[in-house]
Amino acid sequence: MQTQTLLTPRFYTTDFEQMAKYDISLNRSQIEAIVNEFRKDYNQTHFIRDEEFDQAWGQLPASDRQWFQEFLERSCTAEFSGFLLYKELSRRLRNSNPLLAEGFAYMSRDEARHAGFLNKAMADFGVSLDLGFLTKHREYTFFQPRFIFYATYLSEKIGYWRYITIYRHLESHPKWSVYPIFKFFEKWCQDENRHGDFFAAILKAKPEWLTGWGSELWCQFFLLSVFATMYLNDLQRKDFYQLIGLDARAFDIHVIRKTNESSARLFPVVLDVDHVDFFHLMDNCACAYQQWRETKNPFALAKVCIYLLRLYLIKPVKTQALWNTVK
């Protein structure tokens, strides 16, 4: 069982009474279209283990098994966290907003499949997560509905870019595909993409959450939070990415750029990832965080905060200006 750290996948809760009053009338048609996509359940028969899993995975070197176990455990925890949140939202909104409740029910279905598939994969390495124990004993972080939508939209979109990038890399370089779970990532990431689209449609029903300086500050904050969390996590786990033929830093830079581009279709601002100091500051932040993990020196943690503040103070890119340049 992984120990709790600043960057451990978290479980979330929200103000369900406020969520029940959420008015989707301004974008109901788009939400209905996405829920209809969920109904089709494209991946109903996708997550089925085949003969490739029937090997003695204990033969992998102990260090390799350790990195795989940690990757699977963190991924399973994150997917199960989404399942719990979406399931509870579906239950609480059933009477007040049946369309949203149906959408959340389908997303909880998808996340349950992902978590179950990952948990079975962990058994190949002699470990498993007690998901019932996690349900009862994990601490829950409270976010207001607005912030839940920002955070989950980004987590689903960044999940898409992570999964599809790994899949395409291993499709081009099959010698690095050392475990069969990765071949499931192409359709898996489509679930993540549809989930992100659902949250985007919900946010569009509240234009005031996507306009004005206040929204710009919050969007910038959540973008940086999600990007920095991934970057700091992955640079601590370079050996796992090396195991599948990827450079962790290059992988994260690519995923951040792509997620930033996707977010520009929704958010009023995105981060200036092309700024000369952006990834330099991210590297410094990762080094300071590693120093804090090893020493628990509060000065190192203070440096992490300073680097994050400097990243936040880099002037963001207005998305209208961004798409004008793309055109």
UniProtKB/TrEMBL annotation:
It comes from Cyanidiococcus yangmingshanensis. GO terms for molecular function: iron ion binding; magnesium-protoporphyrin IX monomethyl ester (oxidative) cyclase activity. Belongs to the AcsF family. It is an enzyme of class 1 (oxidoreductase). This is Magnesium-protoporphyrin IX monomethyl ester [oxidative] cyclase. CDD domains: ACSF. Its cofactor is Fe cation. The gene is acsF. Residues 70-202 form the Rubrerythrin diiron-binding domain.
